Amino acid sequence: MELTKKFIYKEVDCLLKKQKETYIHSKEIALAFSNNERQIVNGYQGRQLLEMLQNADDSGATEITITFKDNTLTISDNGQGFSLEGIQSLFIPNCSSKANCSDNIGNKGIGFRSILNWSNDIVIRTKDCKLHFSKTIAEEYAKELYGIEDYENIVRKRGLGVKEIPFPLLGVCELQEMSETKIGTDIVMTCFENKHNEIAEQLNLIEKHFLLFTKKLKKVIINNYEFLREQGNICVYDNYFVTQTKIKGNGLFEEWRVFERNGEYEESIEIHSNDRKYTIKIALPNEEYDYRKVLYNYFPMEEYLGFPCLIHCTSDTDSNRNYLNDNAQNHFLLNETADFLVEIAGILKKENYPSTWAPVNLLLSNLDNNKFSSLGSRMKMVILDKIEETLDTLELFPTNGGDYKKKRDCYFYGDDINKFFKLYSQELPDFLLCENVPQALCIKNKQYEYDDFISKIDSISSSIDKIDERVNLISILSRIYRDYNQDNKKFSLLVNENNELINNDIVGYIGKEKETKYDVPTYLKVDFVDSELFLLLKDKIDYKLDSDKDTVPRAIARSLRGIVNIRSYDLDNILDQIESYSKSLSDTEKIKQSVVDLFHIYQATGFKKELKINLVNRNNEITPSGELFF
Question: Global pTM?
Answer without folding.
Answer: 0.82
